[in-house]
Amino acid sequence: MISIKRLIESKAEENLQALVRAYREALGAIGEVGARTCPPAGAALREGLDNLQQRLAGELTPTLVESTGAEVEEEIGRWGDSAAERFSQQTGEVKEIMLVLARTAEALGRRDHEYSSQFQEFTERLRTIASLEDMNRMRASLLESAVALKGCVEKMAAENRETVARLSHEVNKYQVRLDAAERQAASDPLTGLENRRKVERSIERRIESGQGFSVILIDLNGFKQINDCHGHLAGDRVLKQFAEELKAVFRVVDVVGRWGGDEFIVVLDGTAAEAESYLERIRKWAFGIYALDAKKGGRRARVKGAIGVAACQPGDTLATVVERADAAMYEDKRAPGKPDYSA
User: Which of 2, 121, 315, 326 has the most CB atoms lying inside 10 A of its own CB?
Assistant: First the structure.
C-alpha cells in the first residue's frame, strides 16, 4: 500500500498535466463543433474558448480552474443564445413570405368575389336585353353593357398586373434575404469556403445520383505551432490566405471547403487520376510562404501539407469515401523524402 501511495504521489503532477491537456483539447473540439453548427455564432465561441485554452497553459491554481469552468459555461451559453436567435431570424423570414402570400391570396379572393358579382349583373342585364322587342333599345343596351364589361375587364387586368408586380417584388425581396442567409449558413465564416455541412451535402447528392467523383483531403503540417508561437490571429490569417490560393487551383464547378481546423477538402467530378492531376498544382501553388501579419515585411511562415485522394466506388457512403481519402493523406504525411514545394 505504501509503494502504491508513493507511486500515485510521484505521478500526481504528470496526471494533472494530462488532465489539463485533455481539458484544453475538449475546449478546442467544442469550439470547432460550435463553429460548424452555427458559423455566424461559432466564430465568437471558438475565439473565447481559444483564449481560455491559452490561460490554462500557464501555472494552474484552484481559483483559475474554477473561474475558467464558469467562463466556459458563459461562452457556451452566449453561443446558444446567439445560435437560437439566428435560427429564429431565418424562421421569421420564411414566415414573413408565407404571410405575404396569404394576404395576397385573401385580397385576390375578395376581388374575385367583387368581380363575380359584377359579371352576374352583366348576365342578368343580357337576359333583360334578350327579352326586348325594340331593336334600337336592344342595340343601345348591348352597347352600354359592352362598354361597362370592357371597363370591368380592363380594371381587373390592371389590378392583376399590379397584384402580380407587388407580390413579385415582395417575394424577390425576401428571396434575396433568404439566399444571403443560406450562403452564410453554407460558408465557413473564417475562410469563406464551403463549410463541412455543405461539403457533406454535395458528396451525398453525388452518391445518390450515381455521379462519379473524387475527394481530395489536405492537412497542413505543423499548423499548431503557428498558433502556439505566433497566436491565433496569425494562424487565422494564414488559413485565409491558403484558402484563397487553394480555391484558385480548382474550377468554379468544384466544391472547395474547409473540413475543420487546418484540414481542407475538395470534391470534384471525375476519376482519381483526374483528381491526382491537381496535386502537383496544390504543392506548387497553394503550399508556400505566407504572411503572419498585415504589415509589409512582417513575419512569415512556410506552409506545407499532406494530401490524400479517393474516388467514389460502388457501394460507398459519405463516411467510407472520406475515410479512404483520410488514410491516403496520412500515408502521404508519413512518406519519407517528400519533395519540398514550398520555396
Answer: 326
Distances in Å between the Cα of 189 and the Cα atoms of 67, 90, 217, 327 are 29, 17, 20, 27
First to last CA, the chain: 59
The three cell numbers locating residue 73: 459555461
Whether residue 214 contacts residue 309, with contact meaning beta carbons closer than 8 Å, is answered with yes
**DSSP 8-state symbol, 292:** S
Let me know whether 117 and 240 are in one domain. no
Q: Is residue 260 classed exposed, middle or buried when 0-12, 13-18 and 19+ CB atoms within 10 A define those classes?
A: middle
With b for 16 or more beta-carbon neighbours within 10 A and e for fewer, the 149-169 pattern comes to beebeeebeeeeeeeeeebee
**Whole-number pLDDT of residue 75:** 75
Task: Pick 272 or 3 by higher pLDDT.
Answer: 272
* Positive or negative torsion for Cα 6, 12, 13, 18: positive
Instruction: Tell me if 44 is assigned to some domain.
Output: yes
Q: Please state the length of the chain.
A: 343
Find the farthest-apart pair of alpha carbons in the chain and give their distance in angstroms, rounded: 129
Q: How far is the C-alpha of 126 from the C-alpha of 148, rounded, in Å? A: 12
- Give the percent of the chain with pLDDT over 70: 52
Rounded CA-CA distance 184/187 in Å is: 5
Q: Quote the domain boundaries for residue 57.
A: 1-186
Cell numbers representing residue 312 in the block: 467514389
Query: At a CB cut-off of 8 Å and minimum separation 6, what does 75 contact?
Result: 45, 48, 49, 52
E strands within the chain? 213-220, 255-260, 263-269, 288-291, 300-303, 305-311
φ, ψ (nearest 5 deg) of residue 295 = -70, 145
Number of H helices, E strands in the chain: 11, 6
| Statement to judge: residues 160 and 213 lie in one domain | no
Domain boundary pick from 186, 207, 223: 186
Mean per-residue pLDDT, 232-251: 93
Do 177 and 241 lie in one domain? The reply is no
Q: Does 148 share its domain with 249?
A: no
